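PROTEIN ENTRY
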Amino acid sequence: MIQNTKCECGHQNHVGTVLCESCGKPLYDDNGTALLEMKYDGVARRSQRENPGILDKVWNFFSSVKIAIYLIVITLIGSALGTIYPQENTFLNIDPSVYYKETYGTTGYIYYLLGLSHTFESWWFITLLFMIGTSLVVCSLDRVLPLYRALNKQQVRKHLSFILRQKVAYTGALPVESGQEQEWVKQAAQTLTKQRYKVHLSEDGTALLAEKYRFSRWGPYINHIGLIIFLMAVLMRSIPGWHMDQHVAFPEGQAVKIPETNYYLKNEKFTIEFYGDEELSPEFRAKKQDVPKIYETKAVLYTCTAQCDDPTKDPVLTEVHRQDIIVNKPLNYEGLMAYQFDFKSNPMLLAVKPSLKNRQTGEVYGSFELSMDRPAEQLQAGPYELKLRGYYPEFSLDSKGVPITLSNEPKVPAFIFTIKGPGLQAQGEPYLYFPRQVDKENFRQDEINGAIGQKLDISVGSMQDVTISEWISYLNIRIDKAMPLVWIGAAISMIGLIMGFYWHHRRVWLRIDNGKLSLGAHTNKNWFGIRKEVASMLQKNGIPVDDKSLEKKE
């Protein structure tokens, strides 16, 4: 069955339209007397379609304001749950499966098992944000397009039932003689113009449409656009390289690669100043506790230009930025920020410059530099060539006596070289070297090296040949390329809120039929204001009326 939606005024309306988009005539209850439902001006929306298909049902689900509210409430509850205990990313070097149970007990362990310890990175939280964004898009499209169509197709002379069934309405005889109706309408138009209305007159001059602040109707949808941009920016943080919030350790004097970037940051020097005893409170003096006053990292930022992904070669670094980092004054370079987060006293060997000498004669053949991070594979000391066969930052032996390393930190560094040169076998001879004297004694370096250890000795002459890192500076590395979009979305949303809160769309319709005036007015907010304006217009044009009498009860 084909439904006829053509109005008597000749306008063809969409199926589901309640009020004619042109003249405003009620299409289904023309004989009624109740106030008209003016929401979206009675136009048809896709979500109101009869016998919806699968796509329509999905559309209807996301176009429902009730569903949107449910999604927002669930998201707020999830966000609240995520703040009960600190999130995992706020800690350094912890095992969350152990930390939450030891720190917060059984509830903390349940909190971890439920995945709430990483709420804001979880799939369900991101899905909720995506669904809210989808709901905003569908809700807006479902309403803004029909509303735009209705507001742009409205005619000046509205149907009589449309006018008289408005919440603010008036009907009565004109206080002018026959033939002066057009003049009275012009005077009414001038009065409304002074009240900042934009007035449209009908061709015969006996009807008008006055309207102001129509732009405020778009406020909620501009707000939606801002919120959509905001949510998109939040979701874009999951794109690799768009967002980072990590804590990275930077030992003094060592360049460390910043994860997921092409940058290296070097802690050239870490300085710390403590409060003196006279500056401390009695409580801290009693504890004999050192309290840091200020601590600073002299940082140099590099970008890798070559050999960046080759683990066997040192990366080629180019300095791009240099800055001292203190608390609340981070390094800032092209969106990358490094905040001073923490520090730790941890003396660590970075490099040594030992010399190769003859044990019997004491002759020094030459010196070479050994880095604890990336030691060179080929070294030369006078006539002797040293080839690195193995490096063990934390040397140990397994159950079979095979050398292994327990970690990548140079806690017990050991090097195995093949040395070629005068007085040695042609293929070279192995030599085990411990830079630290305590390790030489613990692992009996001289006994292990045997004959070659009786001929040659590798050792450091003085502390000037030793580079030690005294401090580790912990920096909070942050990258947030989506933040400008967050601010843009927030600004657009605020503009929409201001438009909707501080301006109200007001319309006044009137028509004259055989010397009788019929007037109706509508606003989306502040009925008291529009009543006063209509009453003032009528009073200035010879119709005494009380503004309270203009408003009809539901």
Remarks:
- The mean pLDDT is 87.
- The chain is about 30% helix and 30% strand.
